[in-house]
């Protein structure tokens, strides 16, 4: 089971160490300089205080939540599962990003019309160890394409993020349904109430579209290969 609080605290510690070690770098000097210009503060005074006061310096450390921390933790966790093979953390944009279009996985460079707001986040495979109910055979390689969305709480911006997931399902659900493919939508964070998850499940249509709520991740992983 993922200990989100522990993972985030570890990233915070790493960011604090980086800030101390690289404070003299162009990146951090620029960040402090821009902050000083915004409030009309003396750069040399503020920089000296940041060098000598670890509590003050923490203000300029990177925020884990702006580093896709939840996606990184989820990627690490899935990749650690012994039965997962060929795990890939995919590009989030550009010509090599993957998008779902009416049951077909397309690269950004091949997409024939306006792309959805969100591309596929993860890819992995699992070897099927039992006879499937939908045509897949024992020993067959099952491909997983996963979208991951973490939303903390309700609000206007959060509702827009939820619409991104709905759009991905609506655009991607029609068309061919390959028996050796699963499309996973990983719903992560307090925003995803049972009601919200049910709303997504009612949209999915295709049997190989799977909606997962992270709070149930332990039980899901115990039966992971049942998706095959």
Main structural class: alpha/beta
Largest sheet properties: 5 strands, mixed
What helical percentage do the residues reach?
40-55%
Radius of gyration over C-alpha positions, nearest whole angstrom: 21 Å
Number of strands: 7
CATH class of the largest domain: Alpha Beta
First and last CA, distance? 22 Å
Work out the strand percent: 15-25%
What would the CATH topology of the largest domain be? Trna Endonuclease, Chain: A, domain 1
Present the secondary structure layout:
Elements: H1 4-21, H2 26-39, H3 43-52, H4 54-57, H5 69-80, E1 85-89, E2 98-101, E3 104-107, E4 122-127, E5 141-150, H6 156-172, E6 181-188, H7 194-204, E7 209-213, H8 217-222
Parallel strand pairs: 5-6, 6-7
Antiparallel strand pairs: 1-4, 2-3, 4-5
What descriptors fit this protein?
elongated, Trna Endonuclease, Chain: A, domain 1, 228 residues, 40% helix, 5-stranded mixed beta sheet, 7 strands, alpha/beta, 2 domains, two-stranded antiparallel ribbon
Could you characterize what this model shows?
Strand 5, helix 6 (156-172) and strand 6 (181-188) form a beta-alpha-beta unit. With 228 residues, the chain is α/β, with parallel strands linked by helices. The two termini are 22 Å apart. The chain is built from eight helices and seven strands. 40% of the residues lie in helices and 18% in strands. A five-stranded mixed sheet has the order 1-4-5-6-7. The protein has a two-stranded antiparallel ribbon with strand order 2-3.
């Amino acid at each position: 089971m993922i200990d989100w609080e522990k993972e985030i605290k570890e990233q915070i510690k790493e960011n604090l160490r980086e800030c101390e070690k690289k404070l003299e770098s162009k990146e951090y000097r620029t960040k402090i300089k821009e902050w000083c210009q915004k409030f009309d503060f003396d750069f040399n005074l503020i920089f000296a205080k940041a060098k000598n006061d670890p509590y003050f310096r923490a203000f300029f450390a990177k925020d884990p939540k702006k580093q896709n921390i939840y996606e990184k933790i989820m990627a690490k966790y899935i990749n650690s599962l012994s039965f997962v093979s060929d795990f890939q953390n995919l590009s989030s944009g550009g010509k090599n990003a993957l998008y779902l279009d009416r049951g077909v996985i397309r690269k950004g460079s091949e997409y024939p019309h306006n792309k959805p707001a969100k591309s596929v986040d993860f890819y992995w495979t699992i070897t099927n160890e039992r006879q499937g109910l939908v045509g897949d055979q024992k020993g067959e390689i099952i491909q997983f394409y996963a979208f991951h969305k973490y939303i903390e709480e309700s609000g206007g911006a959060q509702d827009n993020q939820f619409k991104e997931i709905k759009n991905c399902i609506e655009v991607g659900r029609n068309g061919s349904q390959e028996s050796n493919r699963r499309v996973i939508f990983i719903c992560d964070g307090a925003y995803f109430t049972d009601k919200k998850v049910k709303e997504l499940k009612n949209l999915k249509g295709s049997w190989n579209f799977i909606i997962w709520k992270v709070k149930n991740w332990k039980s899901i992983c115990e039966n992971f290969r049942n998706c095959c």
